[in-house]
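Chain particulars:
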Amino acid sequence: MRLKGLLLAILLSLSLLPLLSSLVFHAQSEYQISGIPLDTLKCTFYWPSTHSLILVGYSKADLVIYDLGTAQCINLGSGEVSFVSQGENSLLIGLSYVVNGTSRTSIAVIGSDFSLKSEINVLGSPIYAFDQGNYVAVVLNRSGLIYLTYYQGKSSTQTLSIELTTGWSSSAGALSFNSSTQSTDLLLWYYQGRNLYLQLYQLVTFNGVVIAPSLIASYGPFNGGYISIIRQQGYNVLLGINSDQGPYALLLGNITRILPLSQYFSYIKDVQFYDGNIYALGTQPSSFVIYSRNSTFVLNLSFQGTLLLPAPYSSIWILGPSKEAVISSNLTYLDSNFTPSLVLNYTDGVGYLFSNLTGEMYELNLYTGKVIGSYTVQGQLEGSSWSDHGIYVVTGSEKGVEVYQFPYVSSFITTLTLTGISGNWTLRLGELWIRETSPEVTLQLPLSEYQFEVISPPGYSNYSGTILPNQSTVSIGIFPLSFRVLVISEGLPRGVSWGADVGKFNYTSNSSILNLSLPLGNYSLRIYPPLYYNYTVKEIFPFAKLNPSTLEVLPSYTSYDLNGISENASVVLIVLFTEQQFPLVIYSSGYNSTWTMFLNGSAINITSNPMVIRLYPGVYDVSIPMSGLNVSYPRLVSIPKDSKLNVTFKRELNLNGNSTERTGTNSSSPNISNTTSGEVYADTLIGPMTQEDLFLYKVISFVIVVSISVLVAIKVK
């Protein structure tokens, strides 16, 4: 069925060729096939049944069907051909004759052995015919009325005839598509005055018997309308229509889309249905429209595009005079050195184009947009076709019909394999952007050298390289990038050392910041606080995912204010350190009232016995000034080494050795609230002695001891 669509597209293109001026160029004889017995050409196509190019044209006054592969001719006499269509195993040719002044119309049936099997006499002018099971279905124009007539067994026996239109039709056309063993879709278009109408039918056979066609949909009228482009693509037919109401793109078949385009441009130049999208190219202004399901994307072009050419990996080229552009994730403009008039074919990464201006066929690399080669032909282009072996180009000149067969461009297969990466990535190959999810991609490329770039997911390195002709494998190593991670401590005195394990990396610092550089990934996390400190993570910012033991570094950056300076980092952790407090149990004897103890000059009201207070680690100076009592206690306590403090009160003795009866009191009366819980939490102002305080205390103590020793020595003397 694809060949039918190609044939119809070629016929439509050929109908426009007489409008173009004829130019003559030098031939390249190595690709020219000689001995073609035709003076003029009507149509040409490649027929799979004979694996050969079929030419339909005239040799002098006779209509001739010529098989290029076998050099066989079928002479159909002096008839005029109205259409040629390919059936399942036959060619169907619409003919009209004038015999003895009487008009006669028929369908010639050519078998797969390239012989005339039968000739079906029909009543009316045949517009189109196709095989449907054991029947030949013929669309006829009878005095301006369009009929569908079935002929049984490829004979002139008429079994069913149905009028498809009402009212007089000046001209009509038809195309069958989406065919199966039991059904076929038929598109009919016809004109009533200046108005264009379209009808879509479904034709069904049941147990070998044809059933009256069902009208699926009607479209029109399109005032002043005409079909400028028709393409059969898969199970669908794509139409480009220009009309007084503006241009339209119609997709009919398994998928139906009707796309009015007058709001984008006034004239449609080309239209393609490719990879689920409708692509339309127009002028006045020069615009390119992509219609995907329910969304429309519009681009205003910087040049007048004339042709659309699908390319690999959902890309599409827009071609114009000495300019081209490609849509592949984005829009890229390129200069070119040719002016294409017609797309002959595209396959395996190569587009085959023809220029009426220069009479050349061009081979365009659809990955790079560069011309691979070009060939000059003689005469004016009359038709083209493609086969398993190459491209056929048929021209006409004063010498008659000329046929050229050009080989396809050689290609090679290469496989790109990425290591060290998972997830989505993008390959830029030439001018195309190829999105991939697998770490391995296999490409069939036209024989050439290619520059490529691997655009990795965020957080991984990119890669650039070259693919050489016939290089079968390319291995690419991708590596994770490193990102800045800030771990900021709060709550530590200056100069205190702390650390962290992040994955297999160990870090220590005596400042408030750990400035790390880590590759993308997940890491185990462990903080090492200083002795006698606890920690909590106060803040995680901005893109870290943290549980108590895991840190995830993601490929993102943010600005963070650090000591008044803006710093960029991927992850910022705020670690809040808190110093531990340890219990000191105070035991007292010899005194049962409330009394006051001074630690490093800060008063603590002792209200119970024993009494527990909590202190930060360090050395504390103990002072218990009590008048009227002798108090014994250690002058220094070291936390957490010392966990208890014993205080003993004794009454003062008089000269006779008797104790006095007065009550002892503290020499000062601090304003401290009593507690009743038996446990006091030390005020934050009560801290251990600093190193300077401890040093001064030791010096003073040493001086006092030395002084006492000197006095004792003098007294002894």
In short: Confidence is low (pLDDT under 50) at residues 1-27, 658-685. The first strand starts at residue 32 and ends at 33. The chain is about 5% helix and 60% strand.
